[in-house]
Amino acid sequence: MENKELKPSNNNWENSLLSQILSSTNPEEPEEVQEIPKQDIPKNADKENKASEKDQKKKNNLKTQDFIRIFWALFLVSSIFFWAFLAYIVFNPGQAQFFIQFWIRPQDIKTLLERMVNISFSIITLIVSIVWIIFLFRAILTKKEYKKKKTVSTILSIFTWIALFTIITLWAYLFEIIWATNYINPNWGIIISDNDKILSEKFKDNYELYRFDNLIWPLTLRFDFKSDVDFVRKRIDITSYEIDFNWDWKIDKNWTSPDEENSIIYTYNGKQIFKPKWEYIWIDILTWRERRVSMKFPDINIIWTVKLTEQPQRLWWKKIIFDASDLRNIWKVNWYLEWNNTAIADYEWYKFFPKNIFSEESIVCMNIFNNLKKTNTCDKIFIVNIWEWWNKNSWWIIKYDVDPLNPLTLKFSIEELKDREKISSFKWVINENNIISEDENPEYTFKWYWKHKITVILEDYLWNSSDISAEIILNKPLTLVRPDDKTDPLNVNNSLLRIENENWESVIWKTYQKELSAYYIKTQIPQKLKFNANFVKVTDLTFELTNVEWDFNDDKKFEKTWKSVDHEFLEDTKYVIKVEYTFESKIKKATQKISESIIVEWLKKDFNVELDFKKESDYAPALVKFDWSASQVKNWRIIKYTYDFWENKAPIVWDAKIDYMFNFPWEYTVTFTVTKDDWTEESIEKKIILKWAAKELAINSSVWIWYEWKPIDFDAIGSIWEIDRYNWDFWDWQSSRDPNPTHIFDKSWTFKVKLTITFSDGSVKTWTKEIIIKEDSEN
Fold first, then answer.
1. Fold of domain 607-690
2. Is 463 left (phi over 0), alpha (psi -120 to 50) or beta?
3. How many CA atoms are closer than 13 Å to the CA of 327, on its beta-carbon side?
4. Composition bias, kind Basic and acidic residues: at what positions (predicted)?
5. How far apart are the first and last CA of the chain?
6. Mapping DSSP to helix (H, G, I), strand (E, B) and coil, where does residue 266 land?
7. How far is residue 600's CA from residue 522's CA, in Å, rounded to a whole number?
8. Is the model's pLDDT at 386 over the cut of 80?
9. pTM above 0.70, yes or no
């Protein structure tokens, strides 16, 4: 009982740590502390531990969330800065030179920007697409009962789709801007480059000049102005330009079409301050006066000179002496000579005598140093191009001509060979076998059609040699398809070429002469002929005719290019025409050309027979009017006109004009013969083609609205062609086979009267006509 009275009524106090401490300090009741239930202590401790663990987790979660928020904030800010930077570079291409300090070439800036835009937009497009698909499926799959949730998902999917479309549009727009921008010359100015560096492969990415106040002669500059012309043309229509490079008030270069020339090369002739003057000329459309626009150019300040003395050593090798005595006043000069891409300090004086002979492209670097400048940089670069002589004379091009009689026989030569006196011998090798000839222009016959390698070995008088090689492909010549004439197979044309006069009559049929390898056509002149090569083809069906060129003047120049052309011959002379066909095979990836010759000669006749005829119809029977009155003879007179109309009748002698009726369809060959007073004759033939008239059917009736029990007359007058049988169907279970029947309808109705006609050739045709029958009010 005493123990219970000592316990406080508050259980929390009893179980608290403070109560235990106070009770343990009471000397009167030392043992009562031991009677506190031990099982209650772990329970309170567990609750406290759990609470402390929850607090710790909350703190950790807060830290993680804070870290994620900071990360996404930094990512968002960096993305905004990145996009702002990218947009600034794209819309301000002049600032793209920023990348050059990171060793990125101007030629690669466009590729870099394209990749940056593509990668970033690809990631954003993918993320937005996934979000749009999620919202879209939520909007579709959400049930109608959840209207609010479905509406929210639908709105979000629409906005996400709009954002996706905007991103893709912006992507395409930026890509188009990048593609259309010239990052090598973003400011649309004139680029000035060291021409020697452009010609060298070793400086192909480092040839542009930016400073012009401290230059050394010899100096050759290249002015690239294509971008500048494109920019200026947006404001004015340039008609020409004038350039004065060396400030001597003389025009060094002028041109009427700046678009055709992308760059100009100019070599300065010594040390001087040059002030180039560049003017674009255009016409003011309001006043029609000539206007000029001057372009800004830097002054070209050449203040020192270096003399170069060349000493030829062999066929194309050379030895060069460099003299920089003009630079004595500025201190010392170091020379660096590059052999095998290794720079060696070779000489320290104003004159440089390299011991080596230049046998390949080499670089000589001149470094100027004094108390103010001690860095080993090249102040002037000399590029020694030992192939200059070869380039000038186009040595590496082997030319060949094919024998027209034997396509396997070729004659070789070297194109535009100059300085012939430097070469002592030629050795021609075919397919890396034995030497076939030592002539300058050999002729060789191959054994087969295929790819062949031709090599010529050139030697000079010091026994130095060099070789030039070329590969040629000898294709088997194509064969033109000839007309199929079984009646006279030995006397056919060489191809399917067609030549017709103004009356569409062929003048080329069986005119090909093998001994001349040409068509030999005799015709009256003046005359206009129609040349048609649309039907020309070769036996190899993989080849297709793609182009035809015509030379009508035999001047080795093609005047017309088309498959079908017309040409008028006016003079009484002989014409030699050359036609060249171009055939291409997409399967074999080959192109071959075939030529044909046509000789057109004036036909000298005492007779000039001309016929004009007109047909009233193309269908028989037809009246044809013939007029021969324009026919003429020289030194004689016509006494008789004879007509043979090709109807198995005797020829008719009549006047120069006659009208003749052809009753039947057929292809008639009318022969017209004129006889002059010395009883010599001249004939001409014309074809008259008459067709069968088109079959037409007609139904006629005395009335088409009538009354019942009253007769109606029918006939088929107006039908064209020979009719064999009639079959009338009056649509009231009655019929007739008479050509002109009379019929009575016994009731009011709309009857469809049908006529079926069988023509003499067995063909059948049907026609229908409506007849309206009314009740007779009188009855």
1. Immunoglobulin-like (2.60.40)
2. left
3. 27
4. 35-57
5. 144
6. strand
7. 6
8. no
9. no
